[in-house]
Design brief:
With 77 residues, the chain is α+β, with helices and mostly antiparallel strands. The protein has 2 helices and 3 strands; from the N terminus they run βααββ. It has helices at 6-11, 13-23, and strands at residues 2-5, 27-31, 34-39. A hairpin with a 2-residue loop joins strand 2 and strand 3. The model has no long low-confidence stretch (mean pLDDT 88).
Length: 77
Amino acid sequence: MKSVNVHEAKTQLSMLLAEIEERGERIVICRNGEPVADLVPHRRKVSMAPDAKLGAFAIGYDPTEELTDEEWPADAR
């Protein structure tokens, strides 16, 4: 993790962004030696990622299995 002061971050922002793109590391911006902000690589949210809640429950039957005649509702026959 690299640390830079505010003046350096302001004057070399393009170079710091290029460095983040290449290495994927975060850069800490400091004022008077104290950290005030982090420059971090952007993480794109994957819209096709499965929802974590889907793994939290289990179905007790095979949803692709066909229903028998007895299992169909009487009004649907």
